[in-house]
Write a structure and sequence with these properties.
Strand content: 35-45%
Number of helices: 4
Number of domains: 1
Helix content: under 10%
Shape: globular
Mean pLDDT: 92
Distance between the termini: 43 Å
Structural class: mainly beta
CATH topology: Neuraminidase
Length: 389
């Protein structure tokens, strides 16, 4: 056997140079994706997690929503033994039903108020208010429950929506699905007398003897339509987010297209996003237009390559991930592939859509933390964050 000449072996420095050359020679999208971010696991073992959030003034705490009906809390990334809130006894869980999201009031440090959206035991979409315990930062006061809004959701268990977010104006925005597999499909989304298939906007504090108030500049105040409605014509807006004065809505499609509606919050006022007349930018049912002309999505992608349902995300502003700054992050539930594009508000175009090179099986939601850190939740039980590569 011929003995190897050790002096002819490539040096470690030479191998490093070869690795850099290989990265340059690979496809441009792959090389770019490899340089953007990686996934850093924080905790695991959650029960069907579907949302993650932080509370104003609580920089050491992270709250993970479990679809089964509990909210777990992490202190400095360590999961505590006792949940922040347990409402499994009033939550209907299974399929797309369950505890769907939470939002903390902007004045949470003093009011201790927060809000949850869930499907109740009758299958209806419900929004409730709770308060944090006065004695503990990591426990909610279960007895503080106050029912704000119950939205009838008859006939089907899917398309509940369920995102809660406080907008830049301080009001609470609520996404609601169109009612699911009912006939005629999507009809409620274009009906301004019903709250299904909408983005709602309310003042969650009691007013005029009612559990919540209506912002006076909501588009349908005084028209005889439901005054909670801010925008309509949505199929299943599972996740939406704000970036300054802009709103991004990931609306799950029907047969062929997924869409992201990205526009100024002011332009979303009274907007009809097209469903069920349109699916994305294509006709779905020409015979069922909305009361107003449709506002078409900024971005659509087809049900090709096993893609099936958009998971809306956030505009990136994490200083540790400069390659993603200003890009809108989203994913697809079936493939788990995370991608991003540059939103052009003026031209209503999505520019430079490309992959991150990260796939997360059963990715159910993103979450935004302090310092604009973006979290990723897997329905299988893992919580991660996007970190520098």
């Amino acid at each position: 056997m011929r003995r190897e000449n050790v002096s002819n072996r490539p040096s470690s420095q030479f191998l490093s140079i070869l690795a850099v050359v290989a990265a340059v020679l690979c496809s441009p999208s792959d090389a770019y994706a490899a340089a953007q971010a990686k996934l850093a696991l924080i905790a695991t073992g959650f029960d069907h997690p579907d949302y993650v959030a932080v509370a104003p003034g609580e920089r050491q705490l992270l709250f993970v929503v479990e679809q089964t009906g509990q909210i777990q809390v992490l202190h400095n990334d360590v999961k505590l033994a006792t949940p922040f809130l347990d409402i499994r006894d009033i939550v209907s869980f299974g399929g797309e039903r369950g505890l769907l999201s939470l939002a903390f009031a902007p004045d949470y440090p003093t009011s201790r108020r927060f809000y949850v959206a869930f499907t109740n035991k009758n299958g209806n979409v419900e929004v409730d208010e709770f308060q944090r315990s006065a004695a503990s930062r990591t426990r909610a006061a279960r007895g503080s429950r106050r029912i704000l809004l119950v939205i009838p959701h008859p006939g089907a268990a899917n398309h509940n929506g369920g995102q809660l977010q406080f907008g830049p104006d301080g009001y609470l925005y609520i996404s609601v699905g169109d009612g699911g597999n009912v006939d005629p499909r999507g009809e409620a989304a274009r009906d301004l007398h019903r709250l299904l298939g909408k983005i709602l906007r309310i003042d969650p504090t009691p007013a005029d003897g009612k559990p919540y108030g209506i912002p006076p500049d909501n588009p349908y105040v005084g028209t005889g339509n439901r005054e909670e409605i801010y925008a309509y014509g949505l199929r299943n807006p599972w996740r939406f987010s704000f970036s300054g004065n802009r709103i991004a809505i990931g609306d799950v499609g029907q047969d062929t297209q997924e869409e992201v509606d990205f526009l100024l919050v002011a332009d979303a006022k009274g907007a009809n996003f097209g469903w069920p007349q349109y699916e994305g930018k294509r006709f779905y049912d020409k015979t069922r237009p909305g009361p107003d002309k449709p506002t078409f999505p900024m971005f659509v992608y087809p049900h090709t390559a096993s893609r099936c349902a958009v998971i809306g995300g956030y505009v990136m502003h994490d200083a540790n991930l400069p390659a993603l700054d200003g890009r809108y992050l989203y994913a697809d539930f079936c493939t788990g592939a995370i991608r991003s594009f540059i939103p052009d508000i003026v031209g209503q175009k999505a520019l430079d859509d490309r992959p991150l090179g990260i796939r997360v099986p059963r990715l159910s939601s993103f979450g935004l933390g302090f310092n604009n850190v973006v979290y990723v939740i897997q329905r299988s039980g893992d919580l991660s964050r996007l970190a520098p590569p």
